[in-house]
Amino acid sequence: MKRKCLLVSVLLSSLAVAAQELDQVFRDAFDDAATLGSRWETSGGAWQVQDGVLQGSSPTRRGFAYLPDLPEANRLEVQVPLRIVKRDNPQGWCTAGVTVFLGPADFWQFALVEGPDQKRYAELVEQYAGTWQAQRTGETSLKQTANEGQMAGWDYDHDYVLTLSLSATEIVGIVADPATKETLTRIAYAWGDVPGVKGGRPGLLVNGLSLAAQEVEARWAAALPIVGNLAVEQGPRGRMALLAPVDGEVTGIVGALRQGGYGVTVLDCQDLVAEGVLDARRFDGLVLPDSPHFPAEGMAGLLRFLRGGGDLVLMGGLPFSVPLLRVGGEWLTQQELDARLRQTPVREMLFDFEQGDASAWQRSSNHLDQPSQASLVAVPTGQALQLDIRGIDGWDTFAAALPNGLPAPDNALCFQADVATATPAVVVELKEGDGSRWIATVALSAGWHSYVVPMAQFEFWGDASPSGRGNAGDKVRLPQVRSLSFGLAGSHIPGLRGDHVIRLDQIGTGQAVFPDTPPDPAVGLNVFS
């Protein structure tokens, strides 16, 4: 009992600073064994309350215990005094700790870890849409702002206090020693404008380790954030938000809702995606008169609204089939955006193929015995580079040197291409002077078309790249690029076989206008499926 009181004292004192902002509190000291069934929900693993302690284990897969009746919050702190009792799985990486939980595919994990080599450390990891280490992967990468004492280690049967907190700007995990009150580990990531798990419910998780938790305390913000000059109309039967169509009239729908006793607040796309607007505490329901058109970056907020108890009224066609992307102050469909991108002018021409020959384009292939070749051919606009690729079975590419690199201000690679229907895509590679490789796969349409490829689309390719590159936040360094290649590769275009002809022209760089925020590729809402 003395140890438990000490742990609670440390817990309360460290939470005092956050109490002013996080005004709602939940505490479970596990004094009643029935609390597991009445307050907690589990997903995987074996969980029980015994002698005032929540015990959890899951030898072969991740197990969760979370609080389903607490609101899904994006301003949240969960703190748990716990100890690791034993290792249940002799293989792989074993973990136990705290979580901010949306579901088995979407959560943050702040855990004590023991690897297959018995090294022990702490880690803060995001799983988003089933992608592990999402905070270090591609378009969902986050900037790490703190990594203090991650490898400090930990001991079995020793008490630690784990704290995981979400604020408007970052997520922070802290491991503290309750006896000395020393901070052992602090890991943090800044949110940035990328999709991810930015809210949830507090909980615990285990995978290969058994834990014993003496108490769980969570704090979150209950007050609705103030949102500009938004005035919510109240009706006797409730408050409805209505997303105004990009093109269309809503007077009739608004009138019908008001006649039925509902207050109606008309929102545009900008309003809808603003943080804190679409909240089930603010609106009882959302009406989409033109449900096919919906802002892509608003899907995560919509799901949060529905999980919070909000209703949804869909009208006008197949819901969410035409996502809208924010570009400056406009909301465009992908088709509209593509049409605009095709008009991006080449700011710096790299190759126009009007002079010289194709000898600068050097071939690389796993089948050099095949008679693939590059040549210049006449086309209606002058000359173009023709890649005649024979018997593709692996990779076959052609690269040209770029001794001066690429201009840093430009954000897109532009080119024109002509292919037959049998060639669905082309693989484009930028290689830096240190040997690091960055590859983009560009889908092609039959005939001559212009293509604009965001530099952000070039992803690190580890094969034959130097160590130390491709880490979280790393990206292609345009001034350091020393070669550009086009071709085909089964690693990026599965199932490709046979002979293919690709004609290329007007290769250069430009400054294109892309969506302000990358659309959320992972969040979907199945309707009538």
Structural commentary:
This protein is mainly β. Helices cover 9% and strands 44% of the residues. Residues 1-20 have low confidence and may be disordered.
Task: Indicate the low-confidence ranges by residue numbers.
Answer: 1-20
Q: What structural class do helix, strand and pairing data support? A: mainly beta
Helix content: under 10%
Supply Rg.
28 Å
Oligomer: single chain
Termini Cα gap: 54 Å
Q: Per DSSP, what share of the residues sits in E-state strands of 2 or more residues? A: 35-45%
| Mean of pLDDT | 90
Descriptive tags:
mainly beta; ten-stranded antiparallel sheet; seven-stranded antiparallel sheet
What topology emerges from the helices and strands here?
Elements: H1 2-15, E1 24-28, H2 35-38, E2 41-43, E3 46-50, E4 53-57, E5 63-66, E6 76-87, E7 94-103, E8 106-114, E9 120-128, E10 131-132, E11 143-148, E12 160-166, E13 170-177, E14 182-190, E15 201-207, E16 209-213, E17 216-220, E18 238-243, H3 251-259, E19 262-267, H4 269-273, E20 285-288, E21 293-295, H5 299-307, E22 311-314, E23 322-327, E24 330-333, H6 334-341, E25 348-351, E26 362-365, E27 373-379, E28 382-392, E29 395-401, E30 412-419, E31 425-432, E32 437-443, E33 447-454, E34 459-461, E35 481-489, E36 498-510
Parallel strand pairs: 18-19, 18-20, 20-22, 21-23
Antiparallel strand pairs: 1-17, 2-5, 3-4, 4-16, 5-15, 6-12, 6-16, 6-17, 7-8, 7-15, 8-9, 9-10, 11-14, 12-13, 13-14, 23-24, 25-36, 26-29, 27-28, 28-36, 29-35, 30-33, 30-36, 31-32, 31-35, 32-34
